[in-house]
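EI: anyone free to look at a 376-residue chain?
SC: sure, send it
EI:
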Amino acid sequence: MRPSSTLFSRLLFGFLLVIASAESAPAESPQNTEWARVIEDARCIKIETDKLEAVIAKNNPKHWMTGIEKGSFLDKSTGFREIGDGLMVIDWLMEAGSDEAWSDQVIAKDGHGVGRYTWHTNETEPERIHYALMAHGSSHRKRMVEGPQLCHRMKPVQPEIIRGADFIAVKTTYLYEYAAPGRKPGSRWTQWIVFPQGERYFVLMDKIDSVNDSEEMFLRNDTPGCVRHVKGDTFSEMYLSYLSGPNGVRIPSSEFFNPFPPDLKFGYRRDLNQTPERFIRAYHLRDKETGEDGPWLAGLTLEPSVVYEAWCSQRPGDIIVMIEEIHGRPVKAGESFSAAHIVGYFDTIEDMHAVYDRHKGHTALAVDALGWRPVK
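SC: here you go
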């Protein structure tokens, strides 16, 4: 017997509904295991391990593109999350010098210029001057080599995912789209993020393959990331390993209640400081409801000598900026430079030091399906 037209229509509708649901649902990796899984959809990649959760945006991020998405980095053992605008966020390619003569000429196709991020002496623009001084200081001038500011203006990307027996790795690449006068666009940024089994941190590399010459090229990022707070409600103290001697300095949150520029305090410049034994930057998380301390969230740059300049400054508003600039040395077209970092949760400063010392001296990562390893 043939089914009635009504029954046939119901069966057909149910079949089509199943197909549509399958197409719209996030795709899980076929290699998901007990310790980790990967869920990918059109917007992002979600990584969940036995210790962490993190999201890597492909487009339409909650705040910035690049690195780990805002608020997504979860420490499963304590329930704490990152409290800034994301982790290991990437900026322009830059160099030392002034761009006053041409900054307003460099406009991206989307209409975004670079002038408002640089320091000018035009007294008719006091708000712009104030922003630039508070954001970047006035003692060490910088200018863009290539743009855009990737975290802010990067177009959608399709990262590559590699699964190993005891790690998950995500690779993202992007070509800079425009350049300063006399330069050309097209330098390649590559970021590897590796999540090892059993760890409360990820390992990361940023690499630049340059198409330009520069006497002092560097890549600007946030390491580990900025801090959002109101009078220290989300963190109790900062730790900077490279200031105040070999043991570093612990800075109470009260030092960040009022704005100050990067070159006033807590700054580091390679040309003015001795290269430290370790380069660690961390903030001690605090429960906003109870005021009790949680874990530290730390960024470890595994080769201290690659840090060109770094600061930890309070901007007007509720944000502490932890900018770090890597390399800052001569580069020829066709040459590359990179830095390797570990970013994650630690219970003590001693734990940070122990992890750092196991991996120190490396500036890059090598990753394939068989495994990953830090390299010099």
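EI: The helical segments are 5-24, 126-136, 150-153, 349-359.
SC: 👍
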